[in-house]
Design a protein that fits this description.
mainly alpha, 3 helices, elongated, transmembrane, ATP synthase F0 subunit 8, membrane, transmembrane helix
């Protein structure tokens, strides 16, 4: 199944999974941060920043 996917798509999927895991870890490690980012607009921006960082690193 994985061989059907192009390597670029596979790497993007890996970076998305890693960014989601890192976001969850950061939220669990810093409960104060998760409380600060409770508003929806800021939360969406934070997710976008993390996704952009993940894509930029790759």
């Amino acid at each position: 199944m994985f061989q059907i996917l192009p390597m670029s798509v596979f790497s993007i999927l890996i970076t998305l999974i890693i960014s989601l895991i890192s976001m969850v870890v950061l939220l669990y490690m810093n409960p104060d941060m998760s409380l600060k980012f409770k508003p929806k607009s800021k939360k969406k921006k934070k997710k976008l920043d993390i996704l952009i960082l993940g894509l930029f690193i790759s």
